Amino acid sequence: MTETTIQQFQLRLPSDLKQSIEKEAEHNNRSINAQILFMLQNYEENNGRVHFLSESVLHRLERFQKDNNYSSQVEAIEEILNDTLQKKDNGRDILNELHTAFKTEKNLRTLAKNILSSHLLVKNIIIEDNNFIEFTLADGSQGKMLKDGKMLYKSSAKDNYSIYTYSTYNYK
């Protein structure tokens, strides 16, 4: 049996990194030293990839990945983030996304398929002979994109449409 020799040395860390390691060590009921050793061993075992997730979250992610047949953790994380972010979208966010896609794709049916049909909050889609697409969200707000790229928005079915201008402003 080979005996492991432990060597001690001083390590200088930026204070914010040290605080992050201390927090993670406390969360995992480890000493700072044990946490750093765990992270280094984990780094080696994962071919140089660093996990910034707690063990419990990492295990849940691995279970989600396996249960949903995702080929990688990155793919699983992208799906989780997409679903989570979609739940926070509003009609303006979706119109902004349509506007961005319209720069390269002018076919409204394709836009409806690629953006609206898979969105968690879109409850109804109307496509009028490639003249416009209209969508209704779960909250009752509606958006419309015309074939020339103009966009209209109304916050409820009882309101009138108003012209919507693409914005990088975050409405959330």
Automatic annotation (TrEMBL):
Lineage: Bacteria, Pseudomonadati, Pseudomonadota, Alphaproteobacteria, Acetobacterales
Domain Arc-like DNA binding: from-to ranges: 6-42
Protein name as catalogued: Arc-like DNA binding domain-containing protein
GO molecular function, one term: DNA binding
Domain of life: Bacteria
Organism: Commensalibacter communis
Any GO BP annotation: regulation of DNA-templated transcription
